[in-house]
Amino acid sequence: KLFGNKYWVLALIMGLMSNVAYGLANSSGTYYCKWIYGDDNLVAILGAVGMIPTILGFALVGPMNKKLGVVKTLRVCFFIGMIATALRILNPTHFWYNTILGCVSSFANIPMMCLLGVTTAMAIDYNAYKYGKRMVASSQSAAGFGGKMGNGLGVSVIGWCLAIAHYDATADVATMATRQAIYAFNIYIPLILFLVMFICAVKFDLEAKLPEIREELEKRKAQK
Known about the structure:
This protein is mostly helical and 224 residues long. The protein is 84% helix and 0% strand. It has eight helices and no strands. Helix 1 (6-37) packs antiparallel against helix 4, helix 1 (6-37) runs parallel beside helix 6 and helix 3 runs antiparallel to helix 4.
């Protein structure tokens, strides 16, 4: 029944993709600094600067949600993240250019982490409308699965990309294959993830239907 609820499936996909992107961002900076920027010490700067979009994201998600609504907030943020990530392709070797755009991408991913529970709650209302059962506990598994599996996949993708490129940690200079692998899990794959999340958010049109759905549920309750 859950997989028959397209909104639950969309929430599951967005939660999973968001956490994959989060896992990639948390684990890939070391390789980028060492092999693309050529300076391991820049990892500390990345970590410090990276706290700014995280704090701003959690601080602003409430006002954005109040102003735009849940779904529009997600659409706007995914679009911003997609554009910021795509722009990195133009100059992937400049430290501050990529750091600033990376911060924008990090900020764009925070609302999904905050609002996954909200989208799941909407899907629960749709369960009640479609099936006559809310299935709260089972529906909330989308958030748990997205978090645990997404982070695990994010870290694994890095290993898979490096394995395909025959990465050698003892090399003095990164091969072209290694550089492309690093670009893949830092830029190309996150870009695809943002695109998938944006498409899912566009298809997630449940928020506008909720008043009508809840009114119908109240009528059914009254009839019983």
